[in-house]
What we know:
Blueprint: H1 3-27, E1 42-48, H2 52-65, E2 73-79, H3 82-95, E3 101-105, E4 116-117, H4 126-132, H5 135-141, E5 142-144, E6 150-152, E7 155-156, E8 158-161, E9 163-167, H6 179-192, E10 197-200, H7 210-220, H8 231-242, H9 253-256, H10 265-270, E11 274-279, H11 283-290, E12 297-301, E13 311-316, E14 318-323, H12 329-339, H13 342-351, E15 356-357, H14 363-366, E16 387-390, H15 397-408, H16 415-434
Parallel strand pairs: 1-2, 1-3, 10-11, 13-16
Antiparallel strand pairs: 3-14, 4-14, 5-6, 7-14, 8-13, 8-15, 9-11, 9-12
Amino acid sequence: MNKGKIMFLIIWIVIIWIIFSIVLDLKSDKNPRKIVKRNTKTFVVWTLWDDKTKFQNFISEFKKSNNKYETINFVVENFANYEEYFYSLTSAFNKGVWPDVFVLNWNEKSVLQDQSLYIEPSVISSNDFRKKYKWVFSDELIYKAKNNKEYIIGVPVWYETLWIFYNRRYFNSSNLKTWEWVNEIIYKLSDKNTNIIPLWIWNWSTVAYSYDILTQFFLLDWVKSIYKLAWKNISQAFLLYQKYWDIKYENGYNSLLPISSNKNNIELFSHDKIAAIIWYPRMLFDIDKYGYGKNFLLASPFPRYLIWWSDYTFVNYNYFSINRDSINTSLWIDLLKYMTTKEWASVYLNNFPYYLPALIELEPYIMEEKILDKYNIIYKDFFNSNTELKTFNKWIKSIYDNEVIKLLDKERNNQKSFENFKSKLACITKKALELKNLSVTCK
Length: 443
């Protein structure tokens, strides 16, 4: 081999070695991205929906029980909108200005979970976790590794389910146990009260959490994941709620409330233009802002298909997760341990009384309590032993929720529109989670 070929070979070996070294460096954890150095005296918590001023009450209680953290500066940020939270959190991780502890919604299956640090058994054991929490949490928040070692993914404090808020002049709780009975009452109301909307679950742009209402209907057909969505599995549920838009039911939508009026269902319900709405318990506080007769407002669990039918109840909850890059190890260990105590959960729920407790031992203490003193709505009304709490895998929650709203705002829905919805959702999700088919336009 001549000197020219030898030199050429050496140059290529050097180039290949440099490229190989760069790839290894990029894949290593030494410098995955730029991380902004943070003072260990600062601890950042990001929450969703819950007022940060009230959240500081828990931090104060935590400091009282852990004097060594009195000098720590706890920075709490809260977001009112999940979509804003999702993108802000993603951006924070990429820029290295992340929170130490953040919340995730269990119905979210995305890259955000990869940023979570699983909790060692020495911090919170899986056996203790199963004893303390309702099974839906232990079933989902315990991760079993290949070596059979179990880790806790995160710590829940509360959960919520969809309820029907109703005016007792038009409904009573016995009318709302099954959809068959609901339909009978709505027929009668439509004949007697032509200027009131019996039940508001259509015109989805004006209905808060319409995506979760649809999801609850899917669960009535025992469909627990977007992977299982197929027209043959959900057509009964899909067509059931569509009745409340259909001209046969009329329901007063087109004549009483054009979408362009920009009024939402809370305002109209509070002004006696709607007889019943489906919402989460926290919406009770929004209803109260508009004012509502305390003797007329009541609530009931989401109706079932049949009185003897054992259904799934859609459960929505966030859990506190540890950022795997947090350097405040001892602090977050103590904070998460504190979150699993009855004392801390009680303080939390007292500040946010519209949530149901994740801790089993708290249930007996709240059963007879009112959610809001003004109204005769108590927690006991919403514990139904005939239904099973169940989450729903949405893939990426923010995308799923937005696409559901688009689907339901179409003038007519049928099998074709549903299949298009599912296809587009799968396409978008594969791009985001699996980085596949990146050049394909999702339609």
